[in-house]
Write a structure and sequence with these properties.
- This protein is 42% helix and 13% strand.
- It is α/β, with parallel strands linked by helices and 924 residues long.
- A 9-stranded mixed sheet has the order 8-7-6-9-10-12-11-13-14, sandwiched between helices.
- Bound molecules: S-adenosylmethionine (SAM).
- S-adenosylmethionine binds next to helix 16 and strand 7.
């Protein structure tokens, strides 16, 4: 169940008469408990309560209290040994009148009337496996409103199928935006009487809903007509009570879809909600999903948390404003300067969705401005921060509309908060008709036309703020000139997932700069456009991105182009999970990278340390791998640059499952021992290598083919491979059908193979590598050094190699994706003496012996981050001591120091020139 379904279920539970016996089960059911779970709890099989309640292990202990005894019952639940034994997260007591609950992990307690508990449902979301950020827990209203609006939207589309066609979608979305405005205005005194809109619809439209649309049309028309023109426009008396709103919101067609009785009921119900509580930064993200066929099922799951947005906005410019505020203390002149500086700051999000970055930036700036005004003794002063300085581009029509609306609502709420309801109301209507969110493709629009340093950009004379055409910059007012901060989380989209149009966008931006543009993620387009924008005006840009643009192959393609424009990385946040409301809260792994052409800007690297706290470091330079080092791009190398042996990918089976076999399938071949030794090899892919799974392959040298083909089961397998390869559309595969008895490569170590898995978890402290015998081989999921000296294994198993691969190779999410060309061939290594090699060989042997001592533990078992056996850890420590001693005569202090040294050596290795590492200044 998603959050919206849960909210609906518990709202409906709270509306039913309280049933003491049923309540615990109905409550659990509302949070998604399955029928079997409930049956077993009812029968007592799994109910572990020792106080006559219902205890679901690891979740919740509920007891219905005697009337008036809710507090005592909650205390009883808290003291109950079963609560501790059952490791429950929550305790809950209610008598149907009062309701109390406690989150035993956080100690947070809720106390409310029974009827109100659905408003606090976010508190219990962990019961449904939804771990939420605080903001979500506190946005019950936004979830409720979104869920209800979604129902209305679907109902209207059912009754008005033509409104769901591409031709009318815009109108439908526009209609929803108008409705939301009316609901908000209904509860915030913007209309002359509380609930005026909803009440008017209820009174003036007949119960059978037949004229609901005409009533709403008349209201919309009134809101688009100046009072002096109303008589001529034939606005009915009952609609004349609505104010003139316009601002584009009610201009254009005021046609309204027809309402069924159900739709009318939904509308009236939505109107009865307390829209004062709307949170425009959260609500927008949720509501935009309503209009999106693909996203509707997971309503609002793409919600981006406010703390994450602040990770972008704070270092980009808000921290600086706050610092200046601190410095100004109560000095009126300094405060005034800061205020006038802020009034000219433009925040620009060129993939703004429903405007959450813009709304949050606006709200934060208003907070700072309010403090300035307070210190200057002008607390009620009108804001000098124009909403029109918060600009966006958004491809999709509905989010763009919602972004405008969200900003308008945010402005009103800030005015109420900082200046008072009266002042807010006095200036709210009519809405400003200037347009500042453009609906169009950000990679095709000229950003300067939207956010030019000064002057006026493209002028569109239109009085329809919400109905302007696509792909045009819509700024039609003067810019005063000031700082511009670009921000957002544009779509990431790796090269394999891009549509033809998205590829064309990247081609237009990059093809005249690099041949390799096809490998870039879509988000790279935003970085390049921001850098181009910065050539013409002073600006800094910070985007959330996938980490792949700062790893592996994309680094040498993208970053030299950015640096060439005079930009540097101003700050960065290394990989972290971008949490959202998805039911498993998996979140994507992202980074934040800011570029700036302001050379004076202090450079900062933010990261999350192992204990979860945030760490900030200053650096003189941040390179494209987000390391405090000079700018270097590690290029893939076909051959080792470091004198190391050639590493190759293992053998590609390309066999349709016929050459590879389980142990049982090998037995079924009924080979003699001698045949088995000759025709079968144990084979390792990543999973076999890491998890110790057994797998074998046919290993048929050409001279053995005739003999092998006489064995019926082997012959059938070879036929299967041939058929599979012939059926492929790939010519290479067809060619390979001629030797269907073999994998694409037939490489094997004559003495041994040093192997390393291609894909592996980032959580292991060392890369999964090891030594295989000469009767063992590897698939293409493993890289191999055939018959290389053992000291090479010491390199692979080192922390230094782990750090290098993590930085320069591609990561899949966070997982390591090893590469011979990017990782092994480029690994910076000082010249090794004979003694060094002997020492490292010894270290590698010790690691292997330590592993042996734990036979049959697998690599996955041995390198579980919490459980590396002490003797194995000691062997690795010795290995790192020896290897790092070769680099700098001692162990490195941390991974950052390791990377700095590696980048320094890489530069030497590739340029032949020595590099001083002293130009890196590190602060704690
Ligand atoms: C990851 S969302 C971010 C939106 C918002 N900041 C949030 O957190 O919900 C990216 C947004 O970029 C929009 N988008 C995608 N391609 C675009 C393009 N070429 N130009 C402008 N916007 C685009 C999408 O429609 C989406 O709303």
């Amino acid at each position: 169940m998603n959050a919206f379904e849960i909210e609906e279920a518990i709202s409906s539970l709270a509306q039913q008469p309280f049933d003491a016996a049923e309540f615990p089960f109905s409550f659990l059911q509302a949070f998604g408990a399955k029928d079997t779970t409930l049956r077993r709890l009812r029968s007592g099989d799994t109910n572990k309560s020792d106080v006559g309640g219902v205890l679901q292990t690891t979740n919740i202990h509920i007891k219905v209290a005697a009337p008036g005894a809710v507090t005592e019952t909650l205390n009883l639940l808290k003291a109950s040994p079963a609560t501790t034994r059952g490791k429950v997260k929550f305790i809950l007591a209610t008598d149907g009148a009062d309701f109390q609950a406690e989150d035993l992990n956080s100690g947070e307690v809720i106390v409310c009337e029974y009827a109100k508990f659905p408003d606090l449902f976010g508190f219990f979301l962990p019961l449904a496996g939804i771990s939420t950020v605080k903001q979500i827990r506190e946005s019950s209203f936004d979830i409720k409103a979104t869920g209800r609006l979604n129902r209305l939207y679907l109902e209207l589309l059912k009754d008005n199928p033509e409104w769901s066609t591409a031709a009318r979608r815009h109108e439908m979305n526009h209609f929803m935006a108008r409705l939301i405005f009316c609901f908000f205005a209904d509860r915030t005194d913007i209309f002359s009487k509380e609930g005026l809109f909803t009440a008017t619809v209820e009174q003036m439209s007949s119960k059978d809903s037949s004229n609901t649309h005409t009533v709403i049309e008349a209201i919309f028309k009134a809101m688009n007509t100046l009072s002096e023109d109303r008589a001529a426009a034939g606005i009915p008396r009952w609609a004349n009570v609505f104010p003139y709103v316009n601002g584009g919101l009610f201009s254009g067609s005021t046609e309204v879809p027809v309402f069924s009785k159900i739709a009318r009921t939904y509308l009236l119900h939505i109107g009865s909600l307390d829209w004062r509580k709307i949170n425009p930064d959260i609500f927008g993200s949720m509501i935009q999903a309503v209009a999106d066929d693909d996203e509707r099922g997971s309503l609002g799951m793409h919600y981006t948390s406010v703390p994450n947005i602040l990770k972008v906005l704070n270092p980009l410019f808000l921290d600086d404003l706050r610092e200046k505020l601190d410095e100004a203390e109560d000095n009126p002149r300094k405060l005034l300067n800061l205020r006038s500086r802020m009034s000219r700051i433009r925040v620009f999000d060129p993939a703004c969705g429903s405007g959450n970055f813009l709304v949050i930036a606006y709200k934060q700036m208003r907070e700072i401005e309010a403090e300035i005004n307070k210190r200057r003794g002008e607390p009620e002063r009108r804001s000098e921060i124009p909403l029109t300085n918060f600009r966006g581009i958004e491809l999709r029509d509905f989010p763009a509309e919602i972004a405008r609306l969200a900003l308008i609502i945010a402005e009103y709420q800030c005015d109420v908060l900082y200046r008072g309801q009266k002042e807010a109301l006095a200036e709210f209507l009519p809405l400003d008709s200037k347009n500042w969110v453009t609906c169009g493709n950000a990679l095709q629009i000229d950003w300067l036309s939207l956010c030019g340093p000064t002057g006026t950009g493209v002028k569109i004379q239109s009085n329809d703020l919400f109905g302007t055409p696509l792909d045009q910059a819509e700024i039609d007012f003067d810019n005063e000139g000031g700082e511009t901060y670009i921000c957002g989380n544009p779509p990431y989209i790796g090269s394999t997932w891009q549509t033809a149009e998205q590829k064309a966008d990247l081609e237009a931006i990059f093809s005249h700069r690099t041949k390799s543009w096809k490998s870039l993620d879509y988000v790279a387009g935003w970085f390049m456009k921001a850098a181009d924008f910065g050539r013409r005006t002073q600006s800094s840009a910070a985007f959330v991105s996938t980490n792949s643009i700062c790893q592996g192959q994309q680094v040498p393609i993208l970053w030299p182009l950015i640096f060439k424009t005079g930009h540097q990385i101003a700050f960065a946040h290394t990989s972290f999970k971008w949490s959202n409301l998805a039911s498993n809260n998996a979140g994507v792994t992202v980074i934040i990278v800011a570029i700036s052409n302001d050379v004076q800007r202090e450079r900062k690297i933010y990261s999350i340390s192992t204990d979860g706290s945030s760490v900030v470091r200053s650096a003189e330079n941040i390179n494209a791998y987000l390391v405090p080092s000079p700018n270097i791009e590690v290029q893939p190398a076909k051959r080792p640059l470091n004198g190391l042996p050639m590493m190759v990918r293992g053998n590609m089976p390309y066999d349709g499952g016929h050459l590879l076999m389980s142990a049982d399938e090998v037995s079924e071949l009924q080979l003699t021992d001698e045949q088995r030794q000759r025709l079968i090899r144990r084979i390792y892919g990543s999973a076999e290598f890491i998890q110790g799974k057994e797998r074998y392959c046919l290993w048929i040298e050409d001279q053995d083919l005739a003999e092998a083909s006489l064995i019926e089961r082997i012959r059938r397998r070879i036929d299967g491979v041939r058929a599979m390869r012939l059926s492929s559309s790939d010519k290479g595969a067809n060619e390979m059908a001629k030797r269907a008895h073999q994998m694409r490569e037939m490489n094997i170590g004559q003495h041994h193979t040093i192997a390393i898995a291609a894909i592996s978890s980032e959580n292991r402290p060392y890369l999964p590598c090891g030594l295989l015998g000469n009767d063992q081989t590897v698939t293409n999921k493993v890289y191999a050094l055939y018959d290389a000296p053992l000291w090479n294994l010491a390199l692979m198993a080192s922390r230094l190699h782990w750090v290098w691969i993590g930085a320069v190779c591609v990561r899949l999410e966070m997982r390591f994706s090893y590469s011979n060309t990017l990782g092994w061939n480029t690994f910076p290594l000082p010249a090794l003496t004979e003694k060094n090699r002997a020492d490292l060989t010894r270290c590698a042997e010790d690691i292997l012996l330590a592993r042996e001592a734990h036979f049959p533990a697998t690599i996955a078992d041995l390198y579980d981050p919490e459980k590396v056996p002490p003797d194995l850890q000691a062997a690795h420590d010795r290995n790192d001591d020896v290897l790092e001693g070769i680099y700098i005569g001692r162990r490195f202090r941390n991974d950052t120091e390791r990377l700095e040294k590696l980048f320094e050596l890489y530069t030497k290795m590739t340029s032949g020139k020595p590099v001083k590492s002293s130009n890196i200044r590190m602060k704690a």
